UniProtKB/TrEMBL annotation:
Pro residues biased stretches: 414-424
Region described as Disordered: spans on this chain: 1-27, 408-438
Organism of provenance: Microbacterium marinilacus
Sorted UniProt keywords: Glycosyltransferase, Transferase
Protein name listed in UniProt: D-inositol 3-phosphate glycosyltransferase
InterPro entries reported for this sequence: Glyco_trans_1, Glyco_trans_4-like_N, Glycosyltransferase_grp1
Domain of life: Bacteria
Family matches, as Gene3D superfamilies: Glycogen Phosphorylase B (3.40.50.2000)
All residue ranges annotated as the Glycosyl transferase family domain in the record: 237-366
Domain Glycosyltransferase subfamily 4-like N-terminal per the UniProt entry, residue ranges: 52-219
Pfam families according to UniProt: Glyco_transf_4, Glycos_transf_1
Compositional bias annotation for Basic and acidic residues: 8-27
Amino acid sequence: MGGRVLRHSAERHSAERHSAERYGVERHSADRRVARGEPVVALAHDYLTQRGGAERVALSMGRAFPGAPLYTTLYEPSQTFPEFGALDVRPSSLNRLSPLRRSHRLALPLLAHDVDAIRVDADVLLVSSSGWAHGMRSSGRKVVYCHAPARWLYQTQRYASGGSMRGAATRAAVATLGYGLRRWDREAARSADRYLVNSTVIQRAVRDVYGIEAEVVPPPAACRPAGEEDPDPTIEPGFLLVVARLLPYKNVDAVVRAAGLLGDVDVVVVGAGPDRDRLQSMAGPRVRFAGTVTDARLRWLYRHASALVAASYEDYGLAPLEAGAFGRPAIALRDGGFLDTVREGVSGVFFDTPEAEPIARAIERARATAWDAATIAAHADSFSEESFIDRLRTVVADVAGRTPLSAPAAPLAAPVPTPSPVPAPVATGDTAEIPVAA
């Protein structure tokens, strides 16, 4: 099929040990794994060019299987989580093209061909995918963890709405290539020996699109309270927090307008994306766009927020769990993955449509509620990384026909400390104009 053929075999373990030392990763030889009755595992992910929930899941997989190589199409370290630098990341030949590393959407016409050329020799290939990596070929068995059937392919108008050039280019590409890509995508999905999904919403979508019955394995909240915090002295506690990539379907503009209707709330928006310029042009002085932040800064923001606002259509509601780990309630759209991760009246409140007035009313309800931070944190803690890793290891062992893995996972976060009280929103009486993200 062209492109560089990538191989990972037991015969290459000696060379990989030297590569692992460069990455600082503890590795186990194939002989030791075989002696323990454990499968040789490799990992895969679509592309490592952004910082999102799917990339955090890929990091959790790396902790579940220390030393496993991670195959991907594109890898741009400056645009994704720095923790990938400690893994044995193996990008495809497309990675030589720097414009594609900076904007993976430009690679859309090339990715199916590129993924078809990747061959991985392993007992089990564990794939993290939302559209591409599930097409990688394995000499052994394949387990796919699906974040969502490709949004750009099956929900093009929602995913690529708006007037941006990138959105227009995506719509044009799907109009031209969509039929062939959908056929390729369905064949790729059916090549899996086991299909896992992150939520009941995606379970239904996988059934409808692929005709596959998948198991729900909720991913963990990755940004946990235990860890370094990086304060921002220019931000007063009590703000509403929005954490999302700045894309049209995230409905940041609706949150911006809701804040404008209330007039007495500060909003901090964490995230980057092609919609930023448009959103900033709408925003008033009480909305702050923080861009991409470190985990240390994000911890500080979660701890000092009064609540999270999540107005997007999400397949899995990760951000409410992260906020909840800090004892902060979520104000979320009653749709999609938030239905799995937000307990109304316990860990948050819902609004029914992503429009300014319903969001504003939900914010007011949340502000009037006496939240129990410890109860919120306990709910978030039920979605633990330990449980996620245990289930992945059991599935991999079952698919390989081996005994469950005995090696410990890479270190997890320390126990969650008792969260600090929920700060009240700051109300200064000033009029907020228009702000936010989601």
